[in-house]
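Progress report, Aim 2. The chain analyzed during this reporting quarter is listed below.
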Amino acid sequence: MKTVSLPKNITELLDMAIIRGKTYEEKIEMLALDSFVSKLKECNEEILEFETKYGMSFGEFEKAWDEDGIRDKHSHEVETDYIEWEAIEQEKSRWLSVLRKMRGGYE
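Predicted structure tokens for the chain:
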């Protein structure tokens, strides 16, 4: 474990804020956990937009793409969506991995 010094204004804010945890270490861990969960929720919201737009999951979209089942797949909009959707799926996977590690789970 590493020791970190916190500026007085941060410890004062941690004392004032309603954050779970008794120690600063616990409070910072809860803030990190909340932040990671928030990032995961953002990914899920963005993924839902693509799933709603295309009526399928990314896996289904990728398969349809490979099989030429996506109309106008080489249009700027669809190619951009593919790249962004794939990146968000990868980001979601990374946040899930971080959360599993943080909660003592397995990869």
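DSSP finds four helices and no strands in the chain. The longest helix spans residues 24-54. These observations will guide the mutagenesis work planned for the next reporting period.
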